[in-house]
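Notebook entry, structure prediction.
Reason for the run: the old model in the group folder had no record of what sequence produced it. Starting over properly, with the input documented here first.
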Amino acid sequence: MNRQWIRAAGLPLPLYLLLLALTCGAIQTGTVPEGLVGGFLLLTVFGEGFHTLGQTVPVVKTYLGGSVIAILGGAVLRASGVLPPETVALLDRFVNREGFLVFYIASLIAGSLFHIDRRLLLHATIRILPTAVISIFAGTVVIVLLCTAAGQTPLEGLLYVAVPMTSGGMTAGAVPLSAMYAEALSGDAGVILTKIAPATVLGNMVSILLGALGNRLGKRLPSLSGNGQLVSGGASPETGPKPKQKGARLGAGLLIALAFYQLAAIGNGALPLIPAYAWMILLLILAKSTGIVPQQMEEAATAWGDFVIQSWTAAALTGIGITLLDLRTIAGGLTPFYLFTIVAGVVTITVTAGFVGSRFMGFYPLESAIAAGMCTTNMGGSGNVAVLSGAERLELLPFAQIVTRTCGALMLTIGGILIHLLT
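New structure, fully documented this time:
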């Protein structure tokens, strides 16, 4: 009789454990290859292991799932010191400097946008931004009131909690925000960043957990969920047979995704105020709306996006956890009331987005709460991937990127103006 082993990374458990032992041995002996080989090996082995734990352990699989455990597992690996500094540095180079995360997100954006019905694309894009702005306003009011109750001034609550939490992450949000504050206050940007970073990181963590819980809620109350479809009553992007994932088709899809990102990089070089991801989304919307890309090539990009999701999501999430999620920063700014304030702000934004989107914009409540709510309080592109993976709705990534980048830029502008006017 054949024994049915639990599988991790598509491998029977004994074989996976052998590969894990090999990986750990390479780490301890300092022989992990640099670049693509070492980065892929480490993140895939650890990521798939964490994902399998999250999908099989009782209670954890019900309320969190493999995606959340992959992120948290990566963060714990770094914070605990299990990974040597040179291994962390190798993964940081691979994920952030050598472009693995850009490669992953660009593939997802192209695949997701080409999979959306063109009749719904502009309809959803135009309506999601007002939903997000109204939701951020509601969350900001709650945060300011709570900070005032805790003895801070309303301005402190706004500038040091609400704005950093909704500014679009660390690199594109909290870091430039700290520089603007430092210039206006004649202070040290590093000290200010230490003060505002907990709001950004904790907002991200709460959003990820809410994404996983939202997915659970959608399964229990199907009437709230569009199963990844944003617009209520529209044509589902899942209609029709999925394109076959043959090698040549996947290769074509890869080239299409990379070509659009290259065009976006050119646009960003010409007009740096618009981020590369925003350029990519605009170009893809234009291509989708005009039908300039042949149907076969759209299907190829969709097939490539599906392949990337299935193959490297756990690796990407673990890389985010190791290189971008600092548990020490979270712990340093954590008090019970501060945590309550962050949770209350994120929940207010999420609930408002679900209500406004479903009542006035024609969205499904859960999808609106995720894309127009949770994705305004996370850490940019990496946060979007984490939230949507936990919610099992990666097809919402293009809308999440639009919301995150646009609203993040808006909150940065508001923060920069207020700090100069009121100090």
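Summary: The first helix runs from residue 13 to 29.
The old model has been moved to the deprecated folder.
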